[in-house]
Design a protein that fits this description.
alpha/beta; globular; 14 helices; single chain; 2 domains
Length: 367
Amino acid sequence: MKKLTVCIFPDTVPRDDVLFPLVQVFDHIVYCQAVENMGPEDMNLSALGEELVRKQLCIFFAPAPLGENRERFLALIRDLRSRRDDYASQLGNLSLAGLGQPLPGRQETGSSIISSLLRSSGIEEKSKQERELLLWQARLVLQLAEIYDEEQARVEQELEKISSLQDSLFAELREETGEDFPLTRKLHAISTLTDNQLSLRLKAWTRLYFLGTCEPDPPDLYVTTGRDGLDRLEEQYERRTGSAPKQLGRIALPGRPLPAADPVEQRDRFRDQVRELLAGLTDLVTEPAAAEAAARDRFPADHSPWAETLEQVYPAPACGRRVLELVHFPDLSDRELFLETFAREPGTLQAEVHGGDKKGLLVGHLG
């Protein structure tokens, strides 16, 4: 059976809630890296992430290696991390070279932020070629995004601690007074990306992935956790072709491992029990047009063999559910659709949008 590869976009750091569901049905989960040769210890991976990397179920690809400039760029990132308050919160205001639009009334534009950062490291002056400068900018935006996400996760953890303490205090008060207190609302960080922030990430990821010096091996499927990314691809495809992309159906997946069980062993046991069904999924991913009807019969039904086995191995009350929605975009290359949707290039790079194999591509949304 063919080994299936999925490429995640625009995230660059693996998360358990993405890795665990997808690794049930795919052999390799690929993440694009802004900097080559970054190990698990450089990305603060979870125990699950480290294990999947060790077993080569999660792998990394650097489309545009920095080479001799790697240490210089890493020094810049270390400086950014030490001054995260100055820069990470301004991700949404980046407006350089087509990476975004400035927000009204803001004095500190993205152009000045990024340009000053690149100049301070002696990068911008050396980057005379349009492609090279775009790649530098893309790397920096993706690194800023990682810093921003880390900060949001840290805030979320602190708020979770406060909420737990709050619940304990109200429980004690109920015991002491014998009175009921209304349920209190959990505290959560406002971490939803703005449209501008998401656009920047999608543009930076697309530029780095498709304009890099190393040609990537085409994955069998691109997956995003943001519905907006898939919506934009669908809208551009309809504008370009005059027809809607093909909806191939939805596949239920476990959201998290069973408590106190080895997640990789669980994964192997599940795949063993659904081997024949995985063969059908392989047909769907590799030949989506031919397998479209069979996919609707095999995976979405609540009482299908897939759903029954999923419930046996990963009971929904304990493991939760994620749903992978599959959409087929016939007759366009991945390079063409992604660059036209997220990073339409000016000037001399515009001609490069139309490269790639036009056999079509498959995109998934993990909800």
